[in-house]
From TrEMBL:
Entry EC no(s): 2.3.1.199
GO BP annotation list: fatty acid elongation, monounsaturated fatty acid; fatty acid elongation, polyunsaturated fatty acid; fatty acid elongation, saturated fatty acid; sphingolipid biosynthetic process; very long-chain fatty acid biosynthetic process
Coiled coil regions in record: none
Mode of membrane association: Multi-pass membrane protein
Transmembrane segment boundaries: 24-45, 66-83, 170-188, 209-228, 234-253
A GO term from the CC aspect: endoplasmic reticulum membrane
Family label: Belongs to the ELO family.
Name this protein carries in UniProt: Elongation of very long chain fatty acids protein
N-terminal signal peptide: none
Compartments in which it is found: Membrane
Domain of life (superkingdom): Eukaryota
Keywords, comma-separated and alphabetical: Fatty acid biosynthesis, Fatty acid metabolism, Lipid biosynthesis, Lipid metabolism, Membrane, Transferase, Transmembrane, Transmembrane helix
Reactions catalysed: a very-long-chain acyl-CoA + malonyl-CoA + H(+) = a very-long-chain 3-oxoacyl-CoA + CO2 + CoA
Organism encoding this protein: Ceutorhynchus assimilis (cabbage seed weevil)
Length: 271
């Protein structure tokens, strides 16, 4: 029974793959992602920790500042790119929006290209964990951090490969907006204790914004599951697997929020 279900899912995914991306970089097959994630996990859990064991932490402040500013600039650019690929023109809606697999519509193709670049942006985010290890900030290489980066990489690839249209682009714009806030905070924090003190009240709000984002993403995933929304089977499969991932991430972020900030809030009230 299980083998038949797996075979059926595999067949629907193969039939639902977007032919427009078949020859695009790293889009033909999922295997490169498996290799990338395997190398990433080996680096952050074994190779680099062993390399750093008897070494002093690297001073990467300037590199990290450039990285953070690059992330902010890229996210802003992707928001603009996505928004001007049919959204601001009024071509799409936030409800049930069917896929356009045509290569003739320039806005549909532009939207797909934005999702492709979003996948590469997720690849660059893996570098952040390497910075943590090289600076010997091992506590920041948490299960939440690693799972979040690997799962979003898979989601970004799947979105471009199978459902590169208006609905996942909503998630792209929301995620980029949150990352603009997050990497701006990281950049200002890297400027030293004075700035860290100034922006410290922002910190809980970034986690709250993440959780609000997950809630909105879940709500936006409901229409494809309703009978009136005639999405293809690949999209339906993606939605069914994506929703538990978002719920799990929400739980992990909420657990982090309770441990990191709720105690501080209570202590402030007592004082």
């Amino acid at each position: 029974m299980a083998s038949k279900i797996i075979a059926n899912i595999r067949r629907n995914l193969e039939n639902g793959a977007d032919e427009r991306v078949s020859n695009w970089l790293l889009m033909s097959t999922f295997w490169p992602n498996i290799a990338i994630i395997a190398v990433y996990l080996l680096l952050v859990y074994k190779i680099l920790p062993e390399f750093m064991q008897n070494r002093k932490p690297f001073n990467l402040t300037r590199v990290i500042r450039v990285y953070n500013l690059g992330q902010v600039a890229t996210c802003l650019f992707l928001i603009y790119w996505t928004a001007t690929s049919g959204w601001v023109q009024g071509d799409y809606t936030l409800g049930c929006q069917l896929m356009d697999y045509s290569s003739k519509d320039p806005k549909a193709l532009s939207l797909l290209q934005a999702l492709h670049w979003a996948y590469f942006l997720k690849l660059t985010e893996l570098i952040e964990t390497i910075f943590f290890v090289l600076r010997k900030k091992f506590s920041q290489v948490s299960a939440l951090h690693v799972y979040h980066h690997t799962s979003t990489l898979i989601v970004a690839w799947t979105s471009c490969k199978y459902i590169g249209g208006p609905m996942p682009s909503v998630h792209l714009m929301m995620n980029c907006f949150i990352h603009v806030l997050m990497y701006t905070y990281y950049y200002l924090s890297s400027k030293g204790p004075v700035w860290q003190k100034r922006i410290n009240p922002w910190k809980p709000w970034i986690t709250r914004a993440q959780m609000i984002q997950f809630t909105l993403l879940l709500l936006h995933l409901v229409p494809p599951l309703l009978p009136y929304c005639k999405v293809n089977k690949a999209y339906a499969i993606f939605t069914v697997f994506y929703m538990p991932n978002i719920i799990f991430l929400y739980y992990m972020f909420y657990d982090f929020y309770k441990k990191a900030y709720r105690r501080e809030i209570v202590l402030k009230k007592i004082k």
